[in-house]
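Lay summary

Proteins are chains of building blocks that fold into shapes. Our project writes down both the chain and a compact code for its shape. Here are two examples, one after the other.
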Amino acid sequence: MHKLRDASLEIILIILIGTLIGATLAIVCNLFVIGVHWFELQREASTLFSLNIGDQLLSFSSVIFLWIAAAIVVALKVGFGITRWTGPADSIYAAHQINEPLNIKTGLASTLAAFAAASGGASVGQYGPLVHFGATMGVWVKRFVSSRLTHEVYLGCGVAAAISAGFNAPIAGVIFAHEAILRHFSVRTIAPITVASISASALSHLWFPHSITFEINSLVPPLAEIVPVLAVLAPLFSLIAVCFMWALRYSARSAVKLTLKRKVSPLLLPFIAATICGLVGVWIPQILGLGFSSINNMIAGEFALSLLFAVLIAKLLMTALCIGFGLFGGVFSPSLFIGVAAGALAGQLITLFGFADIASIISVAGMAAVSSAVIGAPITAVIIVLELTQSYTYAVAVMVSVMLCSLITNRLFGQSFFDRQLLDRGIDLFKGREAIALRQKNIGDFVSQNYLRVTTQTSGQDLCKQMKSRGQTEAYIVDDSGVLLGKISLYAAIDAADSSIERFMDSRPTILYSHNSLDESMLKVRQFVGESLPVVDAETGKLEGSITEGALFQAVTDVQKQARTLERA
């Protein structure tokens, strides 16, 4: 009866938490898109600073709107004291450890900054910021609810709800949360995440009835005809994905170099990006904002060959510029746009060689392949296509390009853009949760004060007596201020006899610094032989304590066990 009661209470709690998070994300995601779309209409209808150039009337309103967006982004950064905007990479990291939780204030400010940038017409996306908002929302809810569910479950609920509401794809939301963020499946996590994802999709339909985001024709040629073409195009899509991610990183590094050399103030960088993107948008307006209408037009084959090439290059460069220079936003939507442009371009070129009725499927395949490589979620990309088209054949066809593209991109660049962002910060997810946990724990937290401490004036005989009384075979020599001078063993103390031990000590023993992580410490002691190791303050050189090999191994084992328990919960 107790088990039945506990199970019933857990199910009720899962439904309540999942529904709450799903409802919140349904509202936020839809209002985000509706708000950006409204500002987009205002920008397109604006006639500010219109000029006649030749026989063409050009409006420079895109520059004005982007300047306003840049001012809002800068104001948010200064007002909230933000040093770095946070996104999906931070959500992934938060899901893999518990010592560095998501910052609620920074997460909310990042979402507002992304909304301002997208509303102004910056070439950025929505899904990344909304995914991170969902993760932040989940972690915030965890603060007020006492349950057996771990923090990563709440985080996953928010992520799944964001994808579900954004794409109207609840199954893809569940898969994305596990595939890209949590990186593992378990019974305890999948139930509440499923509730949140389905709730977000259902409530989006109920409260915000509107047409689907992407209009995809579900008609597809026989697989025998299309699969070879998509397999051949996969390396092209992979190359474009790698170029896009490389451009993003290059832009970010360039921005850092400009600020470090004090050539440009960090607060001016968003205005530089706004000006350049706005001017490019005057001539190629399709690259501004989220670009959903342009994506649908490209899938429908309404863009000329020259325009496809122009929007492909411009979108890639302007997205890299905006994000790298501080007009914060997501990379998911731009990767969809770039993938569709690449697929549509390839489809039109292939049509010239006699292939008919395949441009649309190639466009969607390009969209799924490039985006899956960028975000590191190939299965999610296939499921999204399946849910959008309701066509099994369409999903199978797309899967060829997605899997091959992801494989090639993984070899050339890495698992995803987010993984590379974390790797640039010294966080290697490939090593798993245990490695992250070991990296976060400092050896200073495990030191012992059970060691023998003597001065250089101590004689060998006196030291031998102290060692015998304490049952120890090593001692540490320190000066009057506590700075470590060396280490001496029982055998060296015997050799010293009634002489001072100063000439017999090891003045360069293997030492650990208190700020060293557990994994660093394990690397340092690989060749160590002895009873214990001194732990020293790196700045002062003072001895803070000692740690035995057994205690070090036990600390590593305990941290690894805790990390494994978190993953299997």
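And here is the second example, written the same way.
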Amino acid sequence: MKFLWSSLFIAAAGLSTIIPAAASSDEKSIIDFQSIQKSIVQLAQRQASESGKPTDKAKEGEKNLPAIEPQAQKPATPPAAMQSISYHRRSDSYATNPESDPPRYVRRLSDIGVAAFKDITWLDIGLEHRTRYEWRNNDLRRIEGGEDNPIFLRNRAWIGIKDILDPFRFAVEFQDSRVVNNKHAITDQERNEYDLINAYGELYFKKALGADDRGNDRPVRFRVGRMAYEATDRRFIARNEWRNTTNSFEGFRLNLGREANDWELDLFGMQPVKRLQTKFDEANDHLWFFGGIGTWRKWSDIATIQTYYMGQKQTADPNGFTATNRLDREIHMPGFRIYGKISSLFDFDVSYNHQLGYNGPRRQDAHGYTIEVGKTFDHPWKPRVGFFYGYASGDKDPNDNVDNRFDRFFGFARPWSADHYVIYENLKAPKIRFDIQPTQKLGFELGYGGYWLASSTDRMFDILDGNISNTIKDPGFNRDRTGRSGDFGGHAFEGRIRFQPIPRINTILGYTHFTAGEFVKNRIAASPHCDGGHVYPCVDQRSGNTDFLYFEVLISFL
């Protein structure tokens, strides 16, 4: 995808007030943080001086950061005669609504509260910072026990042009991700310094396909470049907002219709971007990710229907870090998702996916599905109780010529487990969740769930250094090919408190206690003792129970 950058870096120059100079091809650029800090302080002072002025409550509501789930960016309100009603309905299932496009921290320059910019509606800008402190006790992802107290830092900036140059539009999103006070080896899940996660140009034809029955324009959009976005229920294409680094792709995306329409078709062909931590990221030339997503919203008051096909084609990389990277692979996945509400009785969200193809010399045959049913009660605090079950097949026999392990593609890990011990593979996961929101700015969540392996002969994803990061070699302690370690991974209690003290600051306090099951206990017991004279790698012998506490502050500066 190198041919893209000659034009896209011209767009990136729009960030010159934030990124003074591009680095050489081998090193990241250096940012003048003092200049950024000065600009932020000046903006904050300006906004503070205007805070006493009367404001339009409806507009102020638009500026608020959503407490838990991202909400679609609100367009300007047209005259009453021109207003139309969107077909789009959000799902009430937990954490399955994709991030808006552009992301929720992005605003039009005309909306930031500066009188001089009130007519500049064609420029999108955004500036966001997140700090998260974590306390982990005997983190099960590591072969080394004890305590860890990492602090994660993530900064983002966005600039985009629309309308004024139509049909041509472009956008650039910068991100800097770091971790400090981390006692373990840093991976590409924690650090990715000075990089671009979005850098694309697009052709946008507002009325290319006319309008739907409710008067919503049906556009055609063709986007080329680097893209970080989410689709369907985020289980296969996700930015991974919880993680400190972000999934991104290079390629093209063609959209017929948009979210407000009664139907929409999303076609894409992309190469995932390899996060290189301290060098400029580059596309994985050995892997293509492609597919199409069709969404039918004609009956969205009752049900929204999504049918899709997604595929991966990988050529073996002899220098690949993992054994999987060094295989020729081809996976085809048809699937569907239906979500909606049955009057005020209950809401639902169900999906099913089947995977076929080959994984090296082995034939791929796997499947996964999710079911969530919930009810929001008629009360000012909006209490909701939800029941969830997720299943993903695991490899039944490591010695046959069939691979049954379900592949999550590029989906999110959370909220399968808040502590990131399991993902959408080799899993049976029942959960119950309860949410209340006493005020618009305060909310509480409680959840309890269990984790079983769909196949006792396959792995439990991210435990005992058995991960797929490009930093740490997998010692193999997270799988028992004999199946004698059992299939019960454990169960966990999760809780979160979210509080939004002012419109542009969001805070979250969370805690998870994981109680180990037979599989985890047996894998720890079967691994070499670190105090028994064995050489590295070895596992600290412990119960397998863990505690995870975190506090997060998310600030949108504009």
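What can we say about the second shape? The two ends are 33 Å apart (CA to CA).
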